[in-house]
Amino acid sequence: MAVVFLVFSFGGVVIPGLEEFYTKRLKRPTELLNRHMSIGFTIPVVMLCHGPLSDARSVGMIVICFALMGLFNTILAFFLAFPLQCLMVRYDKEFWITSTSDSEKGGGQQGARNARTRGPFHKSSLAGSSCTIPRPIGRCLHIWAMSNPILVICWLLTFTVGVPLRYCTGNDPLLATLLLFSLWLTTIAIQATIKSSSMFPPWIRTLLSGLLNPVLWTALTMISYVFTDASLSSRSLPAMLATLQTNTPLSSIILHAATPYSQPSASLTMAAGDVAITILNAGLVAWGLKLYAHRTHLLSRSGATVCIVSSVLAVANLVGGPVLAARALGVRPRGAAVAFAARSVTIALGNPVMKMLGGDAGLCAAMVVAGGIVYQMGMGLGVGVWLERVGTADAVGVAEGDDGTTRLLSPSRPHFPNDPRIVAPGITVGINAAAMGTAYLYEAESEAAPYAALSMIALGVMTVVFASIPPLTKWIIGIV
To answer: Which positions make up the signal peptide (predicted)?
Structure first.
């Protein structure tokens, strides 16, 4: 992601038409990846079925520590980023809106209304058409199926190709892959239909769409499939999970084929989990293009706020997480306590930290995914609207500009790139929900998404940097 961002940023200086090429050729594929990349997060949840983490008490303490750290990180990230960003934009003339500006006289009023309506966590409708007038159920189902042709094709292939091949030739990967995509597209379509349906009151639509998290329900259904197939085929659970993921994403196959004198390997076969992880990795790389599209926002004072807050949270998690888990709550074994050092770090950067500290990489990945699911459901239920309103007074405030004139600070001002109401929620989501929360913001076409992506990267990089300091690493291991 960072490499793509840097290449396009420097390339845009040399090649004038690069931004137009991105808009015409790369923007739509990038948005498609952003919408479906979260399918890769279902696999770590399913892989938790390998076995219990520990005894019941340790599991309870892990859950309590996870909740406490999540609450602490959310509060610290937001209330550190918000005032810091307010200081950063204090003398930004574009941020303060004068009472005689054109934006308040005309178009600004409409922009303010849009800002209050949309907010940084606004989610556009992902559904196609819905039945807005009373129609027979069969007609509505027909319209729904016609608006989701890929979903219908996936289910047809599952029952006409996947199931027969599974029980005739023992081909598990094909059935699991078709079933995974069918379930994922089904939950996405149902969630989108509920959001645009006129059959329910608005609060019911918000509640149902928030609870119907695609990652959560796809993972739970795949877990049911694994247990059911293991029982019907008289196979052990580890054997079934081995057919779901072989840890061979597409990048490994490409690198193996491109390596001179590489030995043929029979294990280079992709399963359902590997296909999902490949989509996830592609989506993470494609975020570099999204960062490039918002480069003017990131290479500003907001970027400094992101780096400062991410560095503070990286140190706080690296030191405070294991101490809280081991000393205060008595989490055992030691690897489980150390896993809290990278509780919010994206999986790709969390694994090196676990290797350096000797932590439980599986538990760390599970907590990252769990945090993302909690944040996705919370934002779907409207938590983002509350975050947007924090720090905004009902009355009109007065501020003195650097030119000596008195300016009005309107609570209904439209959002600007450096607006703390956009930057602070984005940083909060990126630090606490990692890639899943950032993916949600991109799906929602939120203005806070670039800041979430940048803070996710900054938190992971700074955690790796601090974990690479030998004295600090020894001290953390010693106190645990």
So the answer is: 1-16
